[in-house]
């Protein structure tokens, strides 16, 4: 039931490539080579991530995955697969953020490599793009995989009774959110205040002092409004656009509106594609009256839901004021599993208050409108929907068809992909270094390498 795709073990790149090894070629696929240093780099990264949980034959698996990637990369070229430069840049940014967090920040990462972030990106751009091309080719290979109910039943029947998975009690929870709407007078008050502060900064008052006294950003108030270095794609789009338009340290932006409120920004320093800025934030205030009106809107919808005059899905689409939630049909998504099923501990990890809210609900029921604090710290109102709940049980087709369908599809995809690999290996030139030749993982490659 496990489908290991290329890239899962290949955590690559920005990690231990600086480690000194006596390098040599350990694998060849057609005209593509794999170096021992490539395998050692990935091996060291895996150890850093998982420590004692490192599999015995990990280096063999890493070589196998690297050779599979070379096969897919060659096929992606034949199939004219393309990856946009913007997508490569986004992936690079994501990995830079990940590894900078591991090393203690951007400066530490640059210090480790002895290079700027721009130089690090340039060094790994080709490798990242090759990985993305390989991954896209793999998706194309398995794209047509499908399973029907008979396939799922066959898959289920092949699992020995004593090997069926045991599922904890799970719930599916949705919510419709109503946010208090700022009245025009409060919005204008915020605009007037931010314009006044900007005028004072332009006349020469110290920006950091003004920020310390007046900004409503709790994360930067103790730092004189300073945010620290960041890259494109890490901030609110409007804020980011204004920040990156500043060219000279000390320059001050116009007042801009973001999802947090009204800001103006001062550039502190620019390092290539990264900048450090200060800002002052003024957030339009909502009143208890505004919150009461949000609750009144929720009460009206709650009565319609109880009377079955509208479905949950339609209510989310028409009335929910949570744009991110609308993309999931109002259902909460479990970050641990990627689906909409939560164990109670997982739900508590997402939002403790929801555990108490659903405790009095049965499947298909709605909570009365309740006030709660959103992830941004602001008060709002919501109606909670308990779509389904299950008790702890051994997996079965009645309660867990979707889970077994997903597992059956994964198995079908794995079978298609493995068949593709075997066919491609048979038509390819391969070489495996003696250090890896006895690995069971490399048997399919060894057979091809031994061909006359």
* Distance between the ends: 36 Å
Summed over residues and divided by their number, the pLDDT gives a mean of: 88
- CATH top-level class of the largest domain: Mainly Alpha
Question: Low-confidence runs (pLDDT<50, min 5 residues)?
Answer: 1-19
Q: Supply the number of structural domains.
A: 3
Helix content: 40-55%
Looking at the structure, what is the overall shape?
A: flat
Number of helices: 16
SSE order: EEHHHHHHEEHHEHEEEHHHEHHEEEEHEH
Number of strands: 14
- Beta-strand content estimate: 15-25%
Q: In the CATH classification, which architecture of the largest domain applies?
A: Orthogonal Bundle
Structural class: alpha+beta
CATH topology name of the largest domain, in short, is Triger factor/SurA peptide-binding fold
Fourth-level CATH superfamily of the largest domain: Porin chaperone SurA, peptide-binding domain
What does this protein structure show overall?
With 452 residues, the chain is an alpha+beta fold. The protein folds into three domains: 25-148 and 404-449, Orthogonal Bundle (Triger factor/SurA peptide-binding fold), CATH 1.10.4030; 169-182 and 287-391, Chitinase A, domain 3; 184-282, Chitinase A, domain 3 (Roll), CATH 3.10.50.40. The protein is 48% helix and 16% strand. It has helices spanning 36-50, 58-78, 85-103, 106-113, 117-142, 149-157, 184-202, 207-214, 237-244, 288-306, 312-319, 323-326, 344-350, 352-359, 397-426, 443-449; strands at 25-29, 32-35, 166-167, 170-178, 226-230, 256-258, 261-271, 274-282, 342-343, 365-366, 370-373, 379-389, 393-394, 430-432. The strands form four sheets. Strands 4, 9, 10, 11 and 12 form a five-stranded antiparallel β-sheet that branches. Helix 1 packs across helix 2 (58-78) and helix 6 crosses helix 15 (397-426). The chain is flat.
